[in-house]
Every structure is written in C-alpha cells, then in structure tokens.
Amino acid sequence: MGFISQHPVLVASIVKAAVLLFIVMTALAYLTWAERKIIAHIQSRWGPYFVGAHGLLQPLADGLKFLFKEDITPPVTDRLVYTLAPFLALSLSLTAIALIPFGPPSVLLPLVGQQAWSVTDLNIGLLLVFAITSMGVYGVALAGWSSNSKYPLMGGLRSSAQMISYEVSLTMSVVGVVLVAGTLSFNEIIQRQSGAFWHWNIFGLQHGAVPQIIGFLCYFTAAIAETNRVPFDLPEAETELVAGFHTEYSSFKFAMFFMAEYANMITVSCLATILFFGGWLSPFPSSWTWQIFLPGAGLVLLGIYCAYDTLTEMRGIARLQLAVVTLLALGGGLLCLIPAVAGVIQGPFWFTTKVLLILFFYIWMRGTLPRFRYDQLMSFGWKLLLPVSLANLVVTAFVMIWPWLRHG
Amino acid sequence: MILPLIIFSLCALLTVGGAVALILSREPIHSALALILVMVSLAVLYLLLGAPFVAAVQIIVYAGAVMVLFVFVIMLLNMGVEEQTDFSKIAKFVGVPLGLVLIVWIAHWMFHAQAGSAMGTGATMVPSSTRELSTQLFRQYLFPFEATSILILIALLGALVMARKEE
Amino acid sequence: MSVIPVSWYLVLSAILFGLGVVAFVFKRNVITIFMSIELMLNAVNLAFVAFARAHNQLDGLVFVFFVIVVAAAEAAVGLAIVIMLAQHRESLSVERVNLLKF
Fold first, then answer.
1. What chain C residue is nearest to B118 in terms of C-alpha separation?
2. Chains A and C: 3 or more CB pairs within 8 Å of each other
3. What is the dihedral of CA A27, A30, A36, A37, to 10 degrees?
4. A138 near A190, Cβ under 8 Å?
5. CB distance A123–B3 less than 8 Å?
6. Does the beta-carbon distance from A122 to B52 stay under 8 Å?
7. Of the candidates C1, C59, C72, which has its C-beta nearest B122's C-beta?
8. Is-contact A6 B3, C-beta < 8 A?
9. What is the model's pTM?
10. What CATH number does domain C29-89 carry, 3.30.930.10, 1.20.1250.20, 3.30.230.10, 1.10.287.3510?
11. In chain C, where are the structural domains located?
12. Which of A348, A395, B8, C51 has most Cβ atoms within 10 angstroms of its Cβ?
C-alpha cells in the first residue's frame, strides 16, 4: 500500500498499460473478424457466419485453434533467433500503442491526478512512435533468415528492404504536419486542430495552417507499404512466395506475427487520425452542445438493431448471444446518455470512430486492389513517393514562411 | 528516488552484458543482436540523462538503420561460424588481463574526471528541448551540419559504386 | 531529478569503451570488428551526453548528433568494402587479408 501511495504515477501507468493491452488484443481479434466479413461481402459471399451470431465468435475459435495446433519447428540452425523474431515483432507493435492519446488530457483519473486517456505523454511522442516502428524491421528480417529455407529468406529480405525504403517517405510526409503544429507532441498537434472539421490538418483552413492533403496521401501509401498490406504485400503473398517470411512458423508463433501485423495497422491508423484528422476532436463545431449525446444515441440505435436481429435469428444459441449483445449495447447507450459520462466519453468515441473508418478503408483496399510487382514497388517508393513527400515538405515550409500566403 | 536507480542499474547491466555477449559470441548475428541491445539500453540511459531527442535519434538512426545494414550484410555474406583457431598462449594469458587492466584504468580516470563532481542535479532543467537543440544546430553549428550532409551524400555514392556487381 | 551521479555514467562509458577495444583486438571476423568500432562510438556518445548533463550545456548533444551521423556514413562505406573483400578473398577473417604483409 505504501508503494502505491509513494509511486502513484508508476502504478497508474501499469494499470493503464494492462487495460490498454487487453483492449488492443480484443480489438486485434475483432479486426480479423471484420476483415473476413468485409472482404467476403466485397466478394459477394457471406464470410464467417456459423460460429457465433454473424460469426462473432470466430476470433475465439481461431485463437483456440492457434493454441492447440502442433508447433512444428523446422531444422533451423539458430533456435535463439528463430524463437526471438515473433516475440520481437509483437512486443514492438504493442509498445507503439502506449504512446497514443485516445482522448483529451483534461480528463484525469480521480485518485492519481494523471491523464486518463494515454499511458504516457511525451514531448517527442511522434518521434518515439517512429523509432519503435523502425525497429519492426528486425522481426521480419530475422524471421526470414533464421528459417533456413529459401522462400522465407527471399520474403524476409524483400519485405525488410520494402519496410526500410518506405520508412523514409513515411517520416518525410509527416514533417509537414510538424511544421504546421510547431511541436512533436501529440496533444499539442491535436490542440492546434481544434474547432470544426475544416480545421483538421488535412483541410488545414485555420489560421497559420497549410492543407496537408498530399501529406496524408503520401503518409497513407507509405503506411500501407510499411505494414505489408495489399497492394504492397508481395513479400507475403501466397501465390508468389508461399507465405513469405513466416512460412516456417506454425501455431502460436505464426499467431504472433499475425497479431503484430494487425497491431501495426492499428498503430498506423491511430497516427493518421491524430496527425491529419484531429485525433479525439469532434467534427462538429464545439458550440453545438447536443453532440455530446451522439455516442449514447449511436449505441442505443445499435442496441435496437441488435434487438431486431435477435428476433429474426433462427438458431437458439445465436439468439442468446445476440440477446446478450443487445443488452450490452442498450445498457452502454443509456449509460452514455448520462451527461457526466457523455462528457468524458466524447474523446475516445470520436477517436475510435475515425480509426475504425481508416481501418475499413484499409480492408476495402485489400478486397479491391491487385498487388504491385516487387521492382515496381521499390521504384515507386524511391522515385515517386519520396520526391512527392519532400516536395510537400518544401511547399509547406514555403507557405508557412510567407505571411500573405497563409489562410486568415 | 529509487526508480532512477533501478532503471540505471538495469540498463547498465544490459549494456555491459550486451558488450560482453558481443565479445563472447561465436556467430556474427548474435553479436549484432547484442549490439542492438546495447544501443537500445543506451537510448534509455539518454532518456534518464534528460536528452529525449538524442534517445529517439539513437533508436531511429543507430539501432533502426545502421544495425539493419549490419544485419543485412551478415545475412548476405553468410559465411558461417567464425573460425575458432586456438589463441596463442601469449594472447590468452597476457592479452585478457591486459584488456581488463585497460578497462579498469580508463574507468578510474573517467571516475575522477572534472565533471564527475558537478552533480548536475537538473534543478535548472537543462534546455534540451528539441526546439533549443535545433536552434543551436542551425545557428552555431550550421557549417558542420551542412558538411555532414555532404559527407552522407558522398558515403551513399561511394557505397553504391562499390557494392554494385561488376557488369 | 537525476540523482545518479554523472560519474557513474562516465564509468559505464569507460567500461564500454574498454570492452570495445578488447573486442576489436581479439575478434577475427571483419564485421564483428566493425561492430566493436560502433560500440566504441556509442560509449563516447554516452560520455558526451553525460558531460552535457553535468555542465548543463547543449553542445554535447549536438556533438552526439554529429557522431551518430558520421558513424552511419562510415558504416555504409565500410560495409561496402567488407562486401567487396568477402567476394574477392572468399573469407571474412582478417587473417586472410594479408597480401600487404611483409
């Protein structure tokens, strides 16, 4: 007890990190469900629908499968590196999420007086997130190399070369935002975008800001290449390289790579919302006070839809699950309609909505686009994306310096 | 009070352990991994010393780019385990103690360096914010900055020319 | 804030530097020797940052910046040389690179 009262910040951070870890792992699991459902609907089929109502328990089934599958270890020469690579990939991906603020810093934890919505708050948060994601190359390179087989080696080397190439464009495309905000701290960057949705960095219509549309496009393209997703996923595509760098991994280690990829997606989407779409700010001007009831109203509507679904569902067990979901949604919605809770839940609600929209876009692209060939991919990254990011930086800097070109 | 001490001890242990692992490893890839561990622990030490920007630059550039280069080259030139021909007797019995004497000697003189007595309590929070650092970099140290940019360009061209296959 | 005396950081830096020298002298693989050079540079960086903290100046940090940059350039060129060496001498041991020995 004395320890807790002497080190309140440390204990609060540990608790927040544990809660965040739990939430992120659940979000990862349901992101895989969402991906399978959305791609299925894009391809005119149903996707998982059997395991739970609408296939909602599919991630649970997948998790159990990964746990119980046989762990086949190929004759690798280097056990240490072979076992280390997936742990490294997953731990780095999960660490980057600790730096991201999910809500305004004004909401404080009651006992500790520390901000409730981010695990840490640093002056150079943005730089550290890039530092952690740049270490993610090791997971891929070491996995490919230690598998002692030619497909993983090729996939690993190609994938890591792709990641380090697009990392440069990624950081360059963000410098425009840093110039506009004048700081590397996430909370400051979001505060500079306050107002309504036209003040967000992507539109940039506030005083002293430059629209960052090109910056966003460069950032998003580079981010998709960083996370090895379609259309940049040649190094891990089934028809090309068996499964790339994680061919020789099975069961739990493969699950770790899988989770690391989705965690990277979530991190990159969170960064995109913070830097370009105003983070936890709401798109409506702050003078419209009715908007604090939106989360509650949204959840209640979801509850009503789930109630309708419960009544039309045929299977008994699925009906039971849907009834539970309905009760949760309605309960949560009514809870959020209380003004005290509604004021607190605003920030995370808008943040989550924007992140989910960007993730939907990610999944949509996977269902729609063909993939780049490797040499096309590398020449695109170095010969087109990097010059465009640099040009965006130069133009932004130019406009920031010349006072009569700025808005307002 | 006790927390910086714990973090410092842990990072110092990791650093020295990584350096010793670098010396004692048989395979170059293990030495590279040990060196990456050293660099990341040093970044945490820079954070403890109140230089967050330098810590971030260390991880991004050193641990995240230079060491990736090392790892790539080791993978490319996968020449297997280092040859373990036996040391000559002189090397083993005189070299290792001499190495230890060197380490202790340098450590002793660094301990008694002038700045060691300046405790640096950090009461005046050293102006190591990014803004101040960049102001220094672009005003007082502008010439070295530009010179190192050209140096990197030359290094890039040189490495490109040398590593290309002979057509 | 930092109650750890600066001299402890300096001793750690000295130990790392000494270990780097020992690794440089005793190892036989060219790439490992290169890595020991990087270890020595890192030790020096730690000393710079410790001194910058002790004197409350920023010049130490700026110098660390330059050391990191120059080390990156040196690593790039050095590894290119190592690749050419490995291709010509078919071995990565420095004992094989002895054509200039008299």
1. C54
2. no
3. -120
4. no
5. no
6. yes
7. C1
8. no
9. 0.89
10. 1.10.287.3510
11. 29-89
12. C51
